[in-house]
Design a protein that fits this description.
This protein is an all-alpha fold. About 80% of the residues lie in helices and about 0% in strands. The longest helix has 25 residues. The chain is globular and about 45 Å long.
Length: about 120
């Protein structure tokens, strides 16, 4: 992972959780955390917890930055391009959530991230 992107994420991440993890483990962790954060955004919005919602959105955007920075367009081909488009869509969902959370769109985003998390969990088994 690019050092600057990882450092940016670690600033908003719980200290030490990612230290020593394999690259595969890091990606798994990022997707798991992203999924949890999407739930937190919606839950905080329902409760009117604006600061908590903002923090969850900021962390999720930071994760997307890290994931995007790891894409290898030279070797990844169409998969890298598809992931880039997906990450941009997720970024848009999060940015729009700053104003208002659309439950249907957020549910769709959680399903997509859940599928990606599951796929990464299957890799290396």
């Amino acid at each position: 992972m690019k050092a600057a992107a990882l450092a940016a994420y670690q600033k908003v991440d719980r200290a030490g959780l990612m230290e020593g993890a394999s690259p595969l483990g890091l990606v798994r962790y990022l997707f798991e955390d992203l999924g949890s954060l999407l739930y937190r955004v919606e839950d905080a919005a329902k409760r009117g917890a604006r600061e908590e919602k903002g923090e969850a959105i900021a962390r999720a955007l930071s994760i997307l930055h890290v994931l995007q920075s790891t894409l290898d367009f030279d070797n990844g081909g169409e998969i890298a391009l598809n992931l880039q488009q997906l990450y941009e869509w997720l970024r848009g969902v999060l940015v729009r959530s700053i104003r208002a959370v659309d439950p249907d769109t957020m549910a769709q985003a959680r399903r997509v991230v859940g599928n990606l998390t599951e796929a990464w969990q299957q890799i290396g088994k």
